[in-house]
Design a protein that fits this description.
One of its GO terms (molecular function) is metallopeptidase activity. Its EC number is 3.4.24.-. This protein is an alpha+beta fold and 397 residues long. The protein has 2 domains: 82 residues, Sandwich (Immunoglobulin-like), CATH 2.60.40; 284 residues, no CATH class. The chain is built from 8 helices and 24 strands. Strand 11 and strand 12 form a beta hairpin. The protein is globular. The relative contact order is 0.19.
Length: 397
């Protein structure tokens, strides 16, 4: 028997927000122990981890250019190669919508990695000070803080650890560098470290609205390391969540949150960013716009329904629409579903049209916060320290 197929007459579109994705620049100026020189695979994996975050985060960060301003600034980090606190990074140009991460390795005393955001030392007028401190995200310097606009930060990895640098084989011997890299970049992006995170901590719980929506209540934090979700040990499930499909881990797979204080070794799937970790990024102030991936229906006999699927994220509403022509006003809603971290589906009856176009949109569309223009006063100076958490551990419970 022969069948006619609908697929040649179907076109799929996925629409995303118009804001620019941020760029994460990795620099190795302070890799004084040569960790990344000795382990070039680590550089590849760290770059892949940064590449994962880039298209997810769409926000507006102002340019820091001391030459153009006539004023000065310098960054402060925990030196990734020596551990020196508030190490001064001479001022440099930070392009718009870019954050700069200094990476290195050192002995961390049994911890796998450490990460955090950078502090600042600034001299200039109030416009310049505000720009460097928050890069236009004025909620970052509110009291309490409601946003985050860093110039960058640091990540450091243990030089004595036996690492697994594979991005496809998490069961190989060694601590999975990919999961630790994703985790430490999460700290550099503010999870567990920045003032807008701290403002949402009450006792031993994180109360950010989006994380609460994912978890179903206040999210328990680890008592020993409160910059992390509660550890899953001694029969306690910790903070389970659904994986954002990446690095071979299926979308919707239940794992512990990436920001658990312990990264397990030998797991069947890579421990990756989960639904609750994405919610935490939104709670500290990042504008997220997860890329849309509308899966095309397989060829089916004439008259058979078309089955569409897409990975979802909690906090976004997904709308599947159909049009016979792409003309304005011709789109018809087929399905509206609230994201829940799983892969969602919709089965549509055959349109009966000679051709049909389908698209997937999200609401709310992530829009960047406007860059602020503060009132100018006379020359001033200010300093803020870098922020981080104690070393993140590795192992299995």
């Amino acid at each position: 028997m022969k069948f006619r197929h609908h697929l040649p007459a179907v076109a799929l579109l996925a629409l995303t927000g118009s804001a620019s994705a941020i760029k994460i620049e990795i620099r190795y100026d302070y890799d004084t122990n040569g960790f990344f020189t000795a382990n070039p695979q680590a550089k590849t994996v760290l770059r892949a981890a940064a590449d994962f975050y880039e298209p997810l985060i769409k926000d507006s960060l102002g340019t820091i250019n001391p030459a153009a301003s006539g004023y000065t600034w310098s960054g402060k980090i925990e030196h990734p190669g020596t551990g020196t606190a508030s190490f001064v990074v001479p001022g440099f140009v930070v392009p718009a919508d870019t954050i700069v991460i200094f990476a290195g390795g050192r002995a961390l005393g049994g911890a796998a990695g450490k990460g955090g955001y950078g502090g600042v030392s600034i001299s200039g007028d109030s416009d310049w000070i505000t720009l460097v401190r928050c890069r236009g995200q004025t909620g970052a310097i509110a009291s309490p803080a409601t946003d985050f606009g860093p110039w960058g930060g640091y990540v450091s990895f243990d030089t004595g650890m036996s690492w697994n640098f594979s991005m496809t084989n998490p069961t190989a011997s060694g601590v999975p560098f990919l999961s630790v890299a994703l985790h430490e970049l999460g700290h550099a992006l503010g999870i567990g470290t920045c003032p807008s995170w701290t403002a949402k901590v009450s006792g031993s719980n994180f109360t950010g609205a989006r994380a609460v929506q994912v978890y179903g209540g206040n999210v328990p934090l680890d008592t020993l390391s409160p910059g992390h979700w509660k550890d899953d040990k001694n029969g306690d499930p910790g903070v389970p969540s659904k994986a954002y499909g990446s690095f071979g881990s299926p979308h919707g797979l239940v794992q512990v949150g990436l920001m658990d204080p312990v990264v397990p070794s030998g797991s069947t799937n890579n421990l990756v960013v989960t639904d609750i970790d994405l919610a935490a990024l939104r709670d500290v102030g990042w504008q997220l716009d997860p890329p849309l991936n509308l899966t095309s229906p397989k060829p089916r006999p004439t008259g058979s329904p078309l089955v569409f699927s897409w990975p979802s994220t909690t906090g976004f509403t997904y709308r599947l629409q159909r049009s016979p022509s792409l003309a304005a006003g011709s789109w018809t809603d087929l399905s509206t579903q609230a994201g829940n971290g799983s892969t969602q589906q919709f089965s549509s009856a055959a349109s009966g049209l000679p051709k049909a176009f389908y698209r997937l949109t999200t609401e709310p569309a992530a829009a960047p916060a406007p860059l602020a223009a503060p009132v100018t006063f006379g020359p001033l100076s200010t300093e803020t320290p870098p922020g981080g958490v104690e070393g993140c551990m590795c192992g299995a419970h």
